[in-house]
Design a protein that fits this description.
The structure is a single chain. The chain has 512 residues and is of the alpha/beta class. It has four domains: 3-278, Alpha-Beta Barrel (TIM Barrel), CATH 3.20.20; 294-319, no CATH class; 320-386, no CATH class; 393-503, Double Stranded RNA Binding Domain (2-Layer Sandwich). 40% of the residues lie in helices and 21% in strands. An eight-stranded parallel beta barrel has the order 2-3-4-5-6-7-8-9, surrounded by nine helices. A three-stranded antiparallel sheet has the order 13-14-15. Strand 7, helix 7 and strand 8 form a beta-alpha-beta unit. Bound molecules: 3-methyl-2-oxobutanoic acid and zinc ion (ZN).
Protein backbone atom coordinates (compact mmCIF):
# COMPACT_ATOMS: atom_id res chain seq x y z
CA UNK A 1 0.00 0.00 0.00
CA UNK A 2 1.20 3.55 -0.80
CA UNK A 3 2.56 5.50 2.17
CA UNK A 4 0.54 8.44 3.43
CA UNK A 5 1.83 11.99 3.18
CA UNK A 6 0.81 14.24 6.07
CA UNK A 7 -0.72 17.55 4.99
CA UNK A 8 -0.03 20.27 7.55
CA UNK A 9 -1.94 23.45 6.78
CA UNK A 10 -0.55 26.71 8.15
CA UNK A 11 -2.93 29.20 6.45
CA UNK A 12 -4.09 30.42 9.86
CA UNK A 13 -0.55 30.94 11.17
CA UNK A 14 2.12 31.47 8.49
CA UNK A 15 -0.52 32.54 5.94
CA UNK A 16 -1.96 35.05 8.35
CA UNK A 17 1.47 36.64 8.82
CA UNK A 18 1.09 38.12 5.35
CA UNK A 19 0.67 41.90 5.80
CA UNK A 20 -3.03 42.72 5.81
CA UNK A 21 -4.19 39.09 6.04
CA UNK A 22 -4.98 39.10 9.75
CA UNK A 23 -8.30 37.44 10.55
CA UNK A 24 -10.79 37.63 13.37
CA UNK A 25 -11.48 34.67 15.65
CA UNK A 26 -14.76 33.95 13.83
CA UNK A 27 -13.11 34.12 10.43
CA UNK A 28 -10.38 31.74 11.56
CA UNK A 29 -12.89 29.34 13.03
CA UNK A 30 -14.84 29.29 9.76
CA UNK A 31 -11.69 28.56 7.77
CA UNK A 32 -10.64 25.88 10.28
CA UNK A 33 -13.98 24.13 9.75
CA UNK A 34 -13.41 24.21 6.01
CA UNK A 35 -9.89 22.80 6.52
CA UNK A 36 -11.44 20.00 8.55
CA UNK A 37 -13.91 19.32 5.70
CA UNK A 38 -10.91 19.33 3.38
CA UNK A 39 -9.49 16.63 5.68
CA UNK A 40 -6.06 18.14 6.22
CA UNK A 41 -4.16 16.15 8.84
CA UNK A 42 -2.90 19.08 10.90
CA UNK A 43 -4.24 22.63 11.23
CA UNK A 44 -1.73 25.14 12.58
CA UNK A 45 -4.30 27.42 14.14
CA UNK A 46 -2.05 30.28 15.19
CA UNK A 47 0.65 31.39 17.59
CA UNK A 48 -1.12 31.34 20.95
CA UNK A 49 1.43 33.42 22.88
CA UNK A 50 1.56 36.23 20.31
CA UNK A 51 -1.60 38.01 21.49
CA UNK A 52 -4.81 37.48 23.46
CA UNK A 53 -6.69 37.40 20.13
CA UNK A 54 -4.48 34.64 18.76
CA UNK A 55 -4.77 32.68 22.02
CA UNK A 56 -8.56 32.83 21.81
CA UNK A 57 -8.60 31.83 18.14
CA UNK A 58 -6.35 28.80 18.78
CA UNK A 59 -8.49 27.84 21.77
CA UNK A 60 -11.76 28.17 19.83
CA UNK A 61 -10.37 26.02 17.02
CA UNK A 62 -8.95 23.44 19.45
CA UNK A 63 -12.33 23.23 21.21
CA UNK A 64 -14.21 22.79 17.93
CA UNK A 65 -12.18 20.71 15.47
CA UNK A 66 -12.41 16.96 15.92
CA UNK A 67 -11.03 15.34 12.77
CA UNK A 68 -7.71 17.15 12.33
CA UNK A 69 -4.87 17.63 14.82
CA UNK A 70 -4.81 21.25 16.03
CA UNK A 71 -1.38 22.82 16.44
CA UNK A 72 -0.04 26.05 17.92
CA UNK A 73 3.29 27.61 17.08
CA UNK A 74 5.47 28.69 19.98
CA UNK A 75 8.94 30.11 20.37
CA UNK A 76 11.37 27.89 22.24
CA UNK A 77 10.66 29.18 25.74
CA UNK A 78 8.58 27.92 28.65
CA UNK A 79 6.12 30.80 28.64
CA UNK A 80 5.19 30.43 24.95
CA UNK A 81 4.97 26.67 25.26
CA UNK A 82 2.73 26.82 28.35
CA UNK A 83 0.45 29.29 26.61
CA UNK A 84 0.22 27.01 23.55
CA UNK A 85 -0.60 24.03 25.76
CA UNK A 86 -3.25 26.04 27.58
CA UNK A 87 -4.92 27.09 24.32
CA UNK A 88 -4.83 23.51 23.03
CA UNK A 89 -6.15 21.90 26.22
CA UNK A 90 -9.63 21.21 24.77
CA UNK A 91 -8.39 19.60 21.55
CA UNK A 92 -9.11 15.99 20.71
CA UNK A 93 -5.67 15.76 19.14
CA UNK A 94 -3.07 18.50 19.66
CA UNK A 95 0.47 19.40 18.68
CA UNK A 96 2.94 22.02 19.89
CA UNK A 97 5.25 23.36 17.21
CA UNK A 98 8.28 25.02 18.74
CA UNK A 99 11.05 26.77 16.84
CA UNK A 100 14.33 28.60 17.22
CA UNK A 101 16.63 30.00 14.55
CA UNK A 102 19.77 27.99 13.79
CA UNK A 103 21.48 29.77 10.88
CA UNK A 104 24.66 31.71 11.74
CA UNK A 105 23.02 34.91 10.47
CA UNK A 106 19.87 34.56 12.56
CA UNK A 107 21.67 33.37 15.71
CA UNK A 108 24.20 36.17 15.64
CA UNK A 109 22.21 39.12 14.31
CA UNK A 110 18.64 38.38 15.42
CA UNK A 111 18.89 36.26 18.55
CA UNK A 112 22.35 37.45 19.65
CA UNK A 113 22.97 33.97 20.99
CA UNK A 114 25.84 31.54 20.58
CA UNK A 115 25.20 28.16 18.90
CA UNK A 116 25.63 26.47 22.31
CA UNK A 117 22.98 28.71 23.87
CA UNK A 118 20.59 27.95 20.98
CA UNK A 119 21.32 24.24 21.38
CA UNK A 120 20.53 24.36 25.11
CA UNK A 121 17.35 26.35 24.61
CA UNK A 122 16.07 24.00 21.91
CA UNK A 123 16.71 20.89 24.00
CA UNK A 124 15.26 22.37 27.16
CA UNK A 125 12.13 23.60 25.33
CA UNK A 126 11.36 20.26 23.73
CA UNK A 127 11.86 18.60 27.15
CA UNK A 128 9.44 21.09 28.70
CA UNK A 129 6.86 20.75 25.90
CA UNK A 130 7.04 16.98 25.98
CA UNK A 131 5.65 16.99 29.52
CA UNK A 132 2.59 18.89 28.37
CA UNK A 133 1.70 17.33 24.99
CA UNK A 134 2.74 14.06 23.35
CA UNK A 135 2.98 15.37 19.80
CA UNK A 136 5.89 17.83 19.44
CA UNK A 137 7.20 19.39 16.26
CA UNK A 138 10.53 21.17 16.24
CA UNK A 139 11.67 23.63 13.54
CA UNK A 140 15.18 25.03 13.19
CA UNK A 141 14.20 28.38 11.69
CA UNK A 142 16.22 29.30 8.58
CA UNK A 143 17.24 25.64 8.71
CA UNK A 144 18.22 25.49 5.05
CA UNK A 145 20.89 28.19 5.56
CA UNK A 146 22.22 26.55 8.74
CA UNK A 147 25.50 24.73 9.17
CA UNK A 148 24.97 21.01 8.49
CA UNK A 149 27.09 19.79 11.45
CA UNK A 150 25.31 22.09 13.89
CA UNK A 151 21.90 21.15 12.49
CA UNK A 152 22.66 17.43 12.84
CA UNK A 153 23.76 17.97 16.45
CA UNK A 154 20.70 19.96 17.48
CA UNK A 155 18.16 17.77 15.63
CA UNK A 156 19.59 14.56 17.06
CA UNK A 157 19.29 16.08 20.54
CA UNK A 158 15.68 17.28 20.17
CA UNK A 159 14.61 13.90 18.78
CA UNK A 160 16.21 12.31 21.85
CA UNK A 161 14.16 14.70 24.04
CA UNK A 162 10.95 13.53 22.34
CA UNK A 163 10.32 15.69 19.25
CA UNK A 164 8.09 13.58 17.02
CA UNK A 165 8.23 15.71 13.87
CA UNK A 166 11.27 17.55 12.54
CA UNK A 167 10.45 20.34 10.13
CA UNK A 168 13.18 21.87 7.95
CA UNK A 169 12.18 25.40 6.93
CA UNK A 170 13.51 27.18 3.91
CA UNK A 171 12.46 30.37 5.69
CA UNK A 172 13.59 32.81 3.03
CA UNK A 173 12.79 30.75 -0.09
CA UNK A 174 16.45 30.34 -1.06
CA UNK A 175 16.45 26.63 -1.88
CA UNK A 176 16.66 24.90 -5.27
CA UNK A 177 14.63 21.66 -5.60
CA UNK A 178 17.45 19.17 -6.06
CA UNK A 179 19.65 20.79 -3.39
CA UNK A 180 16.83 21.00 -0.86
CA UNK A 181 15.94 17.34 -1.46
CA UNK A 182 19.58 16.35 -0.95
CA UNK A 183 19.76 18.52 2.18
CA UNK A 184 16.89 16.60 3.81
CA UNK A 185 18.38 13.30 2.68
CA UNK A 186 21.76 14.17 4.22
CA UNK A 187 20.11 15.10 7.53
CA UNK A 188 18.17 11.86 7.60
CA UNK A 189 21.25 9.83 6.74
CA UNK A 190 23.63 11.49 9.17
CA UNK A 191 21.38 11.75 12.23
CA UNK A 192 21.48 8.36 13.98
CA UNK A 193 17.97 8.56 15.48
CA UNK A 194 16.34 10.21 12.43
CA UNK A 195 13.95 7.27 12.04
CA UNK A 196 12.31 8.20 15.38
CA UNK A 197 10.76 11.33 13.85
CA UNK A 198 8.63 12.22 10.85
CA UNK A 199 10.45 14.64 8.55
CA UNK A 200 8.65 17.67 7.26
CA UNK A 201 9.24 20.32 4.59
CA UNK A 202 8.32 24.01 4.92
CA UNK A 203 9.17 26.12 1.88
CA UNK A 204 8.68 29.79 1.10
CA UNK A 205 8.11 30.98 -2.43
CA UNK A 206 10.55 33.86 -2.88
CA UNK A 207 12.02 32.34 -6.05
CA UNK A 208 8.72 30.76 -7.10
CA UNK A 209 9.93 27.27 -6.15
CA UNK A 210 8.09 26.50 -2.91
CA UNK A 211 6.00 23.71 -4.43
CA UNK A 212 8.91 22.26 -6.42
CA UNK A 213 11.19 22.37 -3.37
CA UNK A 214 8.57 20.70 -1.17
CA UNK A 215 8.07 17.92 -3.71
CA UNK A 216 11.84 17.39 -3.95
CA UNK A 217 12.00 17.20 -0.14
CA UNK A 218 9.50 14.36 -0.38
CA UNK A 219 10.90 12.54 -3.39
CA UNK A 220 14.65 12.93 -2.86
CA UNK A 221 14.75 13.63 0.88
CA UNK A 222 12.14 11.14 2.04
CA UNK A 223 10.13 13.69 4.07
CA UNK A 224 6.56 12.61 4.86
CA UNK A 225 4.91 15.88 5.90
CA UNK A 226 4.35 18.99 3.77
CA UNK A 227 3.57 22.37 5.32
CA UNK A 228 1.46 24.53 3.05
CA UNK A 229 -1.23 27.19 2.87
CA UNK A 230 -4.41 27.65 0.85
CA UNK A 231 -3.68 29.74 -2.27
CA UNK A 232 -0.03 29.82 -1.15
CA UNK A 233 -0.96 32.66 1.23
CA UNK A 234 1.96 33.94 3.27
CA UNK A 235 4.50 36.67 3.84
CA UNK A 236 6.34 38.12 0.84
CA UNK A 237 5.82 35.67 -2.06
CA UNK A 238 3.95 33.25 0.21
CA UNK A 239 4.22 29.59 1.17
CA UNK A 240 3.90 26.31 -0.68
CA UNK A 241 0.33 26.21 -2.12
CA UNK A 242 -1.73 23.35 -0.70
CA UNK A 243 -3.91 22.96 -3.80
CA UNK A 244 -0.88 22.67 -6.08
CA UNK A 245 1.15 20.29 -3.97
CA UNK A 246 -1.81 18.02 -3.22
CA UNK A 247 -2.89 17.84 -6.86
CA UNK A 248 0.70 17.16 -7.94
CA UNK A 249 0.94 14.22 -5.53
CA UNK A 250 -2.45 12.90 -6.67
CA UNK A 251 -2.10 13.50 -10.41
CA UNK A 252 1.45 12.09 -10.50
CA UNK A 253 0.95 9.26 -8.04
CA UNK A 254 2.74 7.13 -10.65
CA UNK A 255 5.90 9.11 -9.80
CA UNK A 256 5.49 9.98 -6.10
CA UNK A 257 3.86 6.72 -5.01
CA UNK A 258 2.19 8.43 -2.02
CA UNK A 259 -1.40 9.05 -0.92
CA UNK A 260 -3.00 12.03 0.78
CA UNK A 261 -6.14 12.05 2.91
CA UNK A 262 -7.37 15.38 1.49
CA UNK A 263 -10.89 15.55 0.05
CA UNK A 264 -9.89 17.44 -3.08
CA UNK A 265 -13.48 18.38 -3.94
CA UNK A 266 -13.29 20.85 -1.05
CA UNK A 267 -10.27 22.67 -2.48
CA UNK A 268 -12.11 25.36 -4.41
CA UNK A 269 -14.42 26.22 -1.51
CA UNK A 270 -11.37 26.57 0.75
CA UNK A 271 -9.59 28.74 -1.81
CA UNK A 272 -12.58 31.07 -2.17
CA UNK A 273 -13.15 31.30 1.54
CA UNK A 274 -9.53 32.28 2.21
CA UNK A 275 -9.45 34.76 -0.63
CA UNK A 276 -12.73 36.42 0.36
CA UNK A 277 -11.79 36.55 4.02
CA UNK A 278 -8.33 38.01 3.56
CA UNK A 279 -8.88 40.09 0.42
CA UNK A 280 -5.96 38.32 -1.30
CA UNK A 281 -7.41 37.80 -4.76
CA UNK A 282 -6.52 34.61 -6.67
CA UNK A 283 -4.90 35.38 -10.05
CA UNK A 284 -6.94 33.99 -13.00
CA UNK A 285 -4.10 31.80 -14.27
CA UNK A 286 -3.30 30.32 -10.84
CA UNK A 287 -2.92 26.53 -11.05
CA UNK A 288 -5.92 24.48 -9.85
CA UNK A 289 -8.00 27.33 -8.34
CA UNK A 290 -7.60 30.23 -10.80
CA UNK A 291 -10.65 31.15 -12.89
CA UNK A 292 -8.81 30.06 -16.06
CA UNK A 293 -7.34 26.86 -14.65
CA UNK A 294 -9.82 24.72 -16.58
CA UNK A 295 -10.96 27.22 -19.23
CA UNK A 296 -10.07 26.48 -22.82
CA UNK A 297 -10.13 29.62 -24.91
CA UNK A 298 -8.42 28.43 -28.05
CA UNK A 299 -10.61 26.69 -30.63
CA UNK A 300 -8.15 23.84 -31.06
CA UNK A 301 -8.13 23.12 -27.32
CA UNK A 302 -11.92 23.37 -27.05
CA UNK A 303 -12.33 20.98 -29.92
CA UNK A 304 -9.83 18.54 -28.39
CA UNK A 305 -11.43 18.62 -24.94
CA UNK A 306 -14.88 18.03 -26.41
CA UNK A 307 -13.60 14.96 -28.26
CA UNK A 308 -11.57 13.57 -25.38
CA UNK A 309 -11.10 15.50 -22.14
CA UNK A 310 -7.59 14.25 -21.49
CA UNK A 311 -6.23 15.73 -24.73
CA UNK A 312 -5.68 18.97 -22.82
CA UNK A 313 -6.76 18.30 -19.22
CA UNK A 314 -4.67 16.35 -16.74
CA UNK A 315 -7.14 16.80 -13.85
CA UNK A 316 -10.93 16.88 -13.73
CA UNK A 317 -12.36 20.27 -12.75
CA UNK A 318 -14.99 18.50 -10.61
CA UNK A 319 -12.27 16.76 -8.60
CA UNK A 320 -11.16 20.08 -7.12
CA UNK A 321 -14.67 21.38 -6.58
CA UNK A 322 -15.43 23.36 -9.72
CA UNK A 323 -18.78 21.65 -10.16
CA UNK A 324 -19.89 23.31 -6.93
CA UNK A 325 -20.02 26.59 -8.87
CA UNK A 326 -23.76 26.43 -9.44
CA UNK A 327 -26.70 28.67 -8.73
CA UNK A 328 -27.81 27.77 -5.26
CA UNK A 329 -30.50 30.20 -4.26
CA UNK A 330 -32.77 32.90 -5.67
CA UNK A 331 -35.27 35.42 -4.39
CA UNK A 332 -37.93 32.78 -3.79
CA UNK A 333 -35.68 30.77 -1.50
CA UNK A 334 -36.85 30.62 2.08
CA UNK A 335 -35.09 31.04 5.40
CA UNK A 336 -34.63 27.30 5.90
CA UNK A 337 -32.98 26.83 2.50
CA UNK A 338 -30.71 29.75 3.29
CA UNK A 339 -29.86 28.33 6.72
CA UNK A 340 -29.10 24.92 5.19
CA UNK A 341 -26.85 26.47 2.56
CA UNK A 342 -24.95 28.32 5.28
CA UNK A 343 -24.46 25.03 7.11
CA UNK A 344 -23.25 23.34 3.88
CA UNK A 345 -20.76 26.15 3.44
CA UNK A 346 -19.54 25.69 6.99
CA UNK A 347 -20.86 29.02 8.21
CA UNK A 348 -22.29 28.97 11.70
CA UNK A 349 -23.94 32.16 12.83
CA UNK A 350 -24.17 32.35 16.57
CA UNK A 351 -27.77 33.40 17.18
CA UNK A 352 -31.17 33.42 15.51
CA UNK A 353 -30.82 37.22 15.39
CA UNK A 354 -27.67 36.89 13.31
CA UNK A 355 -29.34 34.43 10.95
CA UNK A 356 -32.29 36.79 10.58
CA UNK A 357 -30.07 39.71 9.78
CA UNK A 358 -27.99 37.69 7.28
CA UNK A 359 -31.23 36.43 5.70
CA UNK A 360 -32.52 40.00 5.38
CA UNK A 361 -29.29 40.93 3.56
CA UNK A 362 -29.67 37.88 1.35
CA UNK A 363 -33.22 38.92 0.40
CA UNK A 364 -32.04 42.45 -0.34
CA UNK A 365 -29.33 41.06 -2.61
CA UNK A 366 -31.71 38.60 -4.29
CA UNK A 367 -33.98 41.53 -5.19
CA UNK A 368 -31.10 43.13 -7.08
CA UNK A 369 -29.44 40.03 -8.46
CA UNK A 370 -31.39 37.06 -9.86
CA UNK A 371 -28.79 34.33 -9.33
CA UNK A 372 -27.14 33.93 -5.96
CA UNK A 373 -23.96 31.84 -5.96
CA UNK A 374 -22.04 30.35 -3.03
CA UNK A 375 -19.49 33.13 -3.43
CA UNK A 376 -22.26 35.73 -2.95
CA UNK A 377 -23.38 34.05 0.26
CA UNK A 378 -19.84 33.84 1.61
CA UNK A 379 -19.24 37.49 0.80
CA UNK A 380 -22.49 38.48 2.43
CA UNK A 381 -21.75 36.52 5.57
CA UNK A 382 -18.21 37.80 5.91
CA UNK A 383 -19.64 41.30 5.96
CA UNK A 384 -22.20 40.05 8.43
CA UNK A 385 -19.45 38.71 10.64
CA UNK A 386 -17.51 41.93 10.51
CA UNK A 387 -20.41 43.99 11.70
CA UNK A 388 -20.76 41.72 14.76
CA UNK A 389 -17.59 42.99 16.21
CA UNK A 390 -18.94 46.31 17.32
CA UNK A 391 -17.37 48.09 14.41
CA UNK A 392 -16.74 51.79 14.69
CA UNK A 393 -17.73 52.52 11.08
CA UNK A 394 -20.71 51.08 9.23
CA UNK A 395 -21.92 51.84 5.72
CA UNK A 396 -25.46 53.22 5.35
CA UNK A 397 -25.96 54.64 1.83
CA UNK A 398 -24.22 56.32 -1.06
CA UNK A 399 -25.16 58.42 -4.04
CA UNK A 400 -22.76 59.60 -6.68
CA UNK A 401 -22.88 61.53 -9.90
CA UNK A 402 -20.54 61.10 -12.80
CA UNK A 403 -20.82 62.22 -16.38
CA UNK A 404 -18.36 62.62 -19.23
CA UNK A 405 -16.67 66.01 -18.92
CA UNK A 406 -17.87 66.59 -15.32
CA UNK A 407 -15.91 66.05 -12.14
CA UNK A 408 -17.55 63.12 -10.25
CA UNK A 409 -19.19 63.86 -6.90
CA UNK A 410 -20.23 61.49 -4.10
CA UNK A 411 -22.41 61.88 -0.99
CA UNK A 412 -22.09 59.16 1.60
CA UNK A 413 -23.92 58.32 4.81
CA UNK A 414 -22.21 56.09 7.37
CA UNK A 415 -22.39 55.38 11.08
CA UNK A 416 -19.57 56.24 13.43
CA UNK A 417 -20.13 54.47 16.75
CA UNK A 418 -23.85 54.46 16.01
CA UNK A 419 -24.09 58.14 15.02
CA UNK A 420 -25.04 58.92 11.46
CA UNK A 421 -22.58 61.04 9.50
CA UNK A 422 -23.16 62.69 6.10
CA UNK A 423 -20.17 63.63 4.05
CA UNK A 424 -19.50 64.51 0.45
CA UNK A 425 -16.61 65.17 -1.88
CA UNK A 426 -15.61 65.27 -5.48
CA UNK A 427 -12.76 63.18 -6.91
CA UNK A 428 -11.05 61.90 -10.03
CA UNK A 429 -13.66 59.18 -10.43
CA UNK A 430 -16.76 58.00 -8.48
CA UNK A 431 -14.68 55.65 -6.29
CA UNK A 432 -12.11 58.32 -5.53
CA UNK A 433 -14.88 60.81 -4.68
CA UNK A 434 -16.60 58.30 -2.34
CA UNK A 435 -13.44 57.37 -0.45
CA UNK A 436 -12.43 61.03 -0.21
CA UNK A 437 -15.86 61.77 1.30
CA UNK A 438 -15.23 59.14 4.00
CA UNK A 439 -11.71 60.37 4.64
CA UNK A 440 -12.91 63.99 4.85
CA UNK A 441 -14.80 63.07 8.00
CA UNK A 442 -12.62 60.29 9.48
CA UNK A 443 -9.21 61.90 8.82
CA UNK A 444 -7.38 58.60 9.35
CA UNK A 445 -4.35 59.78 7.37
CA UNK A 446 -3.89 56.17 6.22
CA UNK A 447 -2.08 55.55 2.96
CA UNK A 448 -3.80 53.33 0.41
CA UNK A 449 -1.29 50.76 -0.81
CA UNK A 450 -3.64 48.58 -2.84
CA UNK A 451 -7.05 48.85 -4.44
CA UNK A 452 -8.47 45.98 -6.46
CA UNK A 453 -11.88 45.02 -7.89
CA UNK A 454 -12.84 41.48 -8.71
CA UNK A 455 -16.09 40.08 -10.13
CA UNK A 456 -17.23 37.49 -7.58
CA UNK A 457 -18.87 35.16 -10.07
CA UNK A 458 -17.84 36.07 -13.57
CA UNK A 459 -20.34 38.24 -15.45
CA UNK A 460 -21.25 41.95 -15.22
CA UNK A 461 -24.33 40.82 -13.27
CA UNK A 462 -21.94 39.60 -10.61
CA UNK A 463 -21.20 41.37 -7.36
CA UNK A 464 -18.00 43.37 -7.32
CA UNK A 465 -15.61 42.45 -4.56
CA UNK A 466 -13.22 45.23 -3.63
CA UNK A 467 -10.05 44.94 -1.57
CA UNK A 468 -8.53 48.05 -0.04
CA UNK A 469 -5.17 47.82 1.70
CA UNK A 470 -4.35 50.66 4.09
CA UNK A 471 -1.13 51.41 5.87
CA UNK A 472 -0.90 53.56 8.97
CA UNK A 473 1.78 53.88 11.65
CA UNK A 474 3.54 50.73 10.46
CA UNK A 475 0.37 48.61 10.40
CA UNK A 476 -1.13 47.19 7.24
CA UNK A 477 -4.71 45.96 6.94
CA UNK A 478 -6.95 44.70 4.16
CA UNK A 479 -10.62 45.66 4.01
CA UNK A 480 -13.02 43.74 1.78
CA UNK A 481 -16.44 44.90 0.62
CA UNK A 482 -18.88 43.46 -1.86
CA UNK A 483 -21.95 44.78 -3.62
CA UNK A 484 -23.44 44.67 -7.12
CA UNK A 485 -22.47 48.38 -7.27
CA UNK A 486 -18.66 48.56 -7.23
CA UNK A 487 -18.62 52.13 -5.87
CA UNK A 488 -20.63 50.95 -2.86
CA UNK A 489 -18.36 47.88 -2.58
CA UNK A 490 -15.38 50.26 -2.52
CA UNK A 491 -16.86 52.38 0.25
CA UNK A 492 -17.64 49.25 2.30
CA UNK A 493 -14.11 47.95 1.77
CA UNK A 494 -12.62 51.27 2.88
CA UNK A 495 -14.76 51.37 6.03
CA UNK A 496 -13.88 47.75 6.77
CA UNK A 497 -10.16 48.56 6.50
CA UNK A 498 -10.62 51.56 8.83
CA UNK A 499 -12.34 49.25 11.35
CA UNK A 500 -9.44 46.83 11.19
CA UNK A 501 -6.92 49.62 11.68
CA UNK A 502 -8.81 50.57 14.83
CA UNK A 503 -9.06 47.08 16.24
CA UNK A 504 -5.79 45.46 15.27
CA UNK A 505 -3.66 44.79 18.31
CA UNK A 506 0.09 44.53 18.19
CA UNK A 507 1.27 40.96 17.93
CA UNK A 508 4.57 39.20 18.10
CA UNK A 509 5.20 37.76 14.66
CA UNK A 510 7.22 34.63 14.06
CA UNK A 511 9.88 34.98 11.43
CA UNK A 512 9.10 33.37 8.07
O1 LIG B 1 9.41 29.86 7.73
C1 LIG B 1 9.70 29.52 8.89
O2 LIG B 1 10.85 29.36 9.27
C2 LIG B 1 8.58 29.35 9.82
C3 LIG B 1 8.93 28.71 11.12
C4 LIG B 1 8.41 29.51 12.27
C5 LIG B 1 8.49 27.30 11.11
O3 LIG B 1 7.46 29.65 9.51
ZN1 LIG C 1 7.29 29.95 7.32
Amino acid sequence: MAEKLIIFDTTLRDGEQSPGASMTREEKLRIARQLERLKVDVIEAGFAASSQGDFEAVKAIADTIKDSTVCSLSRANDRDISRAAEALAGAKSSRIHTFIATSPLHMEKKLRMTPDQVFEQAVQSVRFARNLVGDIEFSPEDGYRSDMDFLCRILEAVIKEGATTINVPDTVGYAIPELYGEFIKTLRTRIPNSDKAIWSVHCHNDLGMAVANSLAGIKIGGARQIECTINGLGERAGNCALEEVVMAIKTRSDYFGLTVGVDTQQILAASRMVSQTTGFVVQPNKAVVGANAFAHASGIHQDGVLKARDTYEIMRAQDVGWSANKIVLGKLSGRNAFKQRLADLGVELESEGEINSAFAKFKELADRKSEIFDEDILALVSEENLSHEKDTFNFVSLSQRSETGERPHASIVFNVNGLEVHSDSDGNGPVDASLKAIEKHVKSGAEMVLYSVNAISGSTESQGEVTVRLQNSGRIVNGVGSDPDIVVASAKAYLSALNKLRSQSDRVMAQG
